[in-house]
Amino acid sequence: MKRKRKYFYVFLLPSFAGIALFVLLPFADVVKRSFTTAVTGQFNGIKNYQTIFHNQAFLLAVENTLKFTFVCIPFLVLAGFFTALLLDQLESKGIVKSVYLFPLAMPTATIVMVWKMIFYKQGFLNLFLTRLGEWTGFWGEVHTDYLGSEAAFWVLVGSYIWKNLGYTVVLWLAGLMGIPTEYYEAAKVDGANSLQRLWYITLPNLKGSLYTIVILSFLNSFKIYREAYLTSGAYPDKSIYLLQHVFNNWFVNLELDKMAAAAVCTGGLLMIFILFLQRLWDRNEA
Amino acid sequence: MRMEVIKKKNEKFIKQAKKHFKKISVVFLLLVPAIFVVMPVLILLSGALMDTYELRNYLSSVFSQGNEFISWKLIPDYPSFANYKKILLETPQFFILFWNSVKLVVCILMGQLVMAVPAAWGFAVYQVKGSRVLFALYVVLMLLPFQVTMLSSYLVLNKFSLINTHLSIILPAVFSTFPVFLSYGGFRAIPAQLFEAARIDGAGELTIFLNLGIPLGKSGLLSAMVLGFLEYWNMMEQPMAFLEDKFLWPLSLYLPEITWGKAGFAFCASVITLIPVMFVFVLGQDYLEQGIIYSGLKE
């Protein structure tokens, strides 16, 4: 037992020392700074926190980030689920899976020009909609500037789904394959139809996958900043001004006191959220 | 009697047709979204084969403020490699940035192997009191977005005067906890009795790690490397915050700077950036999938 302890520390030490040096200690410094003024370093109480919670940009960003998270995660989880259900019926899934996974591998920077070509005022999307309108006779020419208006939010949701659908499908598929086929056969013998099998066998057995997928989708939802920044710059349309923009702009303007307070709030909230999910997870398994 | 046979045959036929129809509709339902997934890639590839005049023609609506729409051809009228030539032979800066990207990714992945893999081994094999709490901490750190830790990273990098050097990107990434989590998944998949047997045979702990753990748990390591490669080749937030000089930038930061006027150049640069990704993607797809699944495993 004692020997075990020793080896645990030996193997863990390099990694933990690095994390302590590069993440934990400086984060403690950030916590300290969140209670002091940026320039003189005097104790400032909770002033920084008051400032950020009266800051219009920060509040807008919090609202947008929450909105984005609550729209795109359920969307992604469901889209991935239905795609995985369909894929599960194919015998050879290889190629289709590769196609869906590829956007994950594609660096954002390589696709920005194409995004702009699709979504600007005279881009592919408007071209398509205009043709569709001419053909059906319901509407005329469409000239929406998707990136410069409220529609930018939906462009972001779309590119998030585009990028992340593949790994969600892989995770759902792994979950589906983990369900023993005997369950289905037994249900079939008992006369359950396909909808009943889905409801009583598939769904309950996928609870574990659901937690995983939600956590990973959440983690990846922060990376949407790349798309937002690259298509619309540091100050995009109001509808997609995210927390990430705020942090970045404060960093560029060296408003470190506000940044410290915001980092503590966001980090703290996320930690509570993650630990809560872990607890939920544990209880589910027990 | 004959009627019966025909009826039976008919039924069989209908049943088969139904099965076929179902299969075709599944493929169709999967293909429609797949087209949307592939379309941007096709636009990129075709754009990279056009010469400047053809591109300018299609993209003229970007430059004029009129109501004309964009036009495109997936197979260029005058295919040309002129833009590739321009990048590869006449733009030495491109190579500097390309090698920056390579250097950053390789250093980060090597560092992660050295730091994260032993840690993952420690968590997977020696479960002592307190290791669970520590592991929970690693998971939380893995899930914190860059923006939350940006200021703390800046403070420590600034203290060591590493800002505006490649080390400012490499060092924090080396201590990312994501590869720990993935390698952990690989090590946990090995049955623990194997290690016990080795111990009884008198093998030391280091020998077990190097000669048993790494070969048997390599799928976790390779998954971490594949996912890591894709992540760091695409890295933007960190270099944007910590690198000021453009000659230090990775490709992923440079590409978006190219303007509409040089669209053809941008397409070609993008395709070249994509080549290593394609390579890793094709060779490592199994590990990529495995990695995604490991990242979903819980303890």
What's the gist of this structure?
The complex is a heterodimer of chains A (286) and B (299). Chain A is an all-alpha fold.
SSE inventory with pairings:
The complex is a heterodimer of chains A (286) and B (299).
Chain A: H1 2-33, H2 47-53, H3 56-88, H4 94-105, H5 108-119, H6 124-136, H7 152-177, H8 181-189, H9 194-205, H10 207-221, H11 225-232, H12 243-252, H13 256-285
Helix pairs in contact in A: 2-13, 3-7, 3-10, 3-12, 4-7, 5-11, 7-10, 10-13
Chain B: H1 2-47, H2 52-58, H3 60-63, H4 82-90, H5 92-125, H6 131-143, H7 146-159, H8 167-174, H9 178-188, H10 193-200, H11 205-216, H12 218-233, H13 237-242, H14 251-254, H15 263-296
Helix pairs in contact in B: 4-15, 5-8, 5-9, 5-12, 9-12, 12-15
Radius of gyration of chain A: 24 Å
Please tell me what the overall shape of chain B is: flat
The helicity of chain B comes to over 70%
* Largest protein interface, residues of each chain: A-B, 97 and 100 residues
Order of helices and strands of chain A: HHHHHHHHHHHHH
Largest sheet of chain B: none
Structural class of chain B: mainly alpha
Mean pLDDT of chain B: 85
Report the major sheet of chain A: none
The value of Rg of chain B in angstroms is: 26 Å
Portion of residues in helices of chain A? Answer: over 70%
Residues in β-strands, percent of chain A: under 5%
Mean pLDDT of chain A: 85
Quaternary structure state of the chains depicted: heterodimer
Counted beta strands of chain A: 0
- Classify the beta-strand content of chain B into a percent band: under 5%
What is the count of DSSP helices of chain A, taking H or I runs of 4+ residues? 13
Gross geometry of chain A? flat
| Poorly predicted sequence stretches spanning 5 or more consecutive residues of chain B | none
